[in-house]
Amino acid sequence: MKMLFRFVTVLAALVTVACAPRERVVVILSTNDMHAKIERFARLAAAVERCRDTVSDVVLADAGDRWTGNAFVDKAPTPGMPMLSLMNRLGFDVATLGNHEFDYGQAFLGRMLDSMRFAVVCANVVSDTATFPQMAPWTILERGGVRIGFVGVVTNYEGPGHPAGNDSSYAGLEFPDPQQAAARCARELRDKVDVLVLLSHMGDDRDREFLSSNGDYDLLLSGHTHVVVDTLVGGTPLLQTGKELRNVGVTVLRLKGHRLVGVETRVVPLSDYEPAPEYEALVTDIYASPELNAPVGSLAEAADKQGLANWMAEAVADCADAEVGFYHVGGVRLDRVEKGAVSSATVYGLEPFGTHVAAMRMTPAQMRRMIVEKYNDTVNLKEAHRIDLIATTPYELVVDAEDRALDVRFPKLLEGRLYRVAMNDYIFRNYRALEYADGRILDDEVAGVLLEELREDSPLHPDNEARQRVVRLGAGLH
Known about the structure:
The chain is of the alpha/beta class. It has two domains: 2-285, 4-Layer Sandwich (Purple Acid Phosphatase, chain A, domain 2), CATH 3.60.21; 294-477, 5'-nucleotidase,  domain 2. Helix content is 29%, strand content 29%. It has 14 helices and 27 strands. A hairpin with a 5-residue loop joins strand 22 (395-399) and strand 23 (405-409). Helix 1 (2-18) packs parallel to helix 2. It starts with a helix and ends with a strand. Mean pLDDT is 93; it is low at 12-21.
């Protein structure tokens, strides 16, 4: 509670200062990448309510990815609606789109926008479809006579040309360069507002890139890369709160008249707050699903993220009767599953996307090309320069002094041989440099395969050992 005490004390002091002639204080509370982790929402509500009790002018903003990641939200009669209902009740004011807003398709998102009782802005989505309305690039909110402009942008780097996801979710939509769109909106909006804020779902790496050459914004609220960032880039505050409602972003704006004279930012852990009882009761009701809570099987030992990725690679391989299975780290949505009973809700939280198993035939040379291309990815930077593809077969990825992938060594595969390979359909549809023979997507969903293994083979014994490693030339293990 020490952080809470300091937070309230600082705000109270600022309110006192604000009584001086012409000085005003506005607080922006921000979230990003909540991913439907509503078990922490009651703590967010407590933080918001405490701030509103302390400061009269508060804005609540979100930088995208509000759902996908919690079966009790994603498997609701209207997927995502429990999350939106909580946000509406708490009084969010403005948000932008993340890539996961499109997980159920643009037609679904178009309908869901009508249920959001807060402004949703995105400057780099262009629609000519009847199912998805053309969105406003920005909105202007007024607090205590202060005009605050919020511009929204979403990544288009992973598609490429659109946010991460299947091409079918974006048919008929265009996603122009988000940095160019943000710069254009700043030129158009700067003279109309006292404070200009960019809600960005580009990722902090791209946000830094943008701010290094653009100083028109007073604040950038970031999302997409799931990191905690509280820094200045070119004099502009850049703030991201991590993921899954572990933290809330706090920005204190100080103005004299209509002139911004100070911006103070911090990331505050929500663990410092006792849950708001009203919201805790609402969340408890959402989690009261006997079907999702019932144990399906069990783990003999706890599985960490590596162990979960290994299991998923093995599961798709077993399903397709393949000799080699691949799974990508971004598709493993839990960091850990504890020893003991495992419910279907846990499995759907681990794999919330409804992805299918894909089967094909590949040579080691083709596998090597896929792995090297992904490691050296110059477009989707957040997935580059890491072991992204977890495989059932061990391999060493050789990199040079500049961390460029050069080669992949497969100690258990024979060069030139055509192997039966399985992966999920996200890799199959979206990864570049993917070459294969006899490729097809099966009817089997990955989550269904995992549930079947739990039912039939429990207790499962997860393997938490890494089968892949990066080796730097001349330096050994990296």
